[in-house]
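yo, SMI1/KNR4 family protein is done. seq:
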Amino acid sequence: MALTPSTLDDLLSGRAVPHGWLHLPPGTDPHTLVTSLTGRCGVPRTLVLDGFADPTADEERGAALLALLDGRGVTVRAWAHGDRWIGAGTAKDAEGEVRPVLATVPRQERAPLAVVPGECVDWVERLIGITGWSAPPRRPGIDWAATETRLGTRLPADYKRMVETFGEGAFDAFLSLNQEPWTDLWEDGLLAWAGTEHKNRYCWRPDGEDPDRWTVTVQTFDGEDVGFDCSAAEFVCRVLVDPHHRFTMARYFDTHWFSSYRQDA
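structure:
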């Protein structure tokens, strides 16, 4: 079976795999299948390796796929993508023969909790829950001291945790997280930490000595500056799930994910 983009579109459309699993023809290369899905959905997590399931898998780490495969998985990679989990690799059929497989199951995201007055909210943890992120930190060893020296300023702790946790990639394949703030808007008094396909730039206006008190300014594609009294991580959480936010992404997606661009980020 040739895995062309149109073939993969058909497989993922729900017509071929409507929340279930499908053994693919024997000539299908599982590695090519996984590579093609990685190009679309980002870096996967390993759910089953040599027949052994990930013991940490829970409802936020692909456990529904394990339940669907019912112990038949041999090597399975998994992606939290949109409103479903996607699994691909190899699994045993009813006769015990190992064959290429593609599986999908519905995915429920953990909605962010309302903020209780006086509560100290960890917005990075909430972002992890919203996106179903379950991979280990992608860039835990960043030399932030060198980065901050080069920029001439300290950076907010929540932004640094986002980069360390998620690495290089984009939320909902739309909002790209800068791995180091961009300085091309310094003349406007802005430091850009993210951006979108619509050319909106998500920035801070670095006022004051405490970077954890910096708030977000969005510079739109047509040059308007729009301020928000929140941190970077809170801003991302809110644009993902609040349908009334000016820059909401909740109108386009019911569930959310982070697509990694690099396997070894």
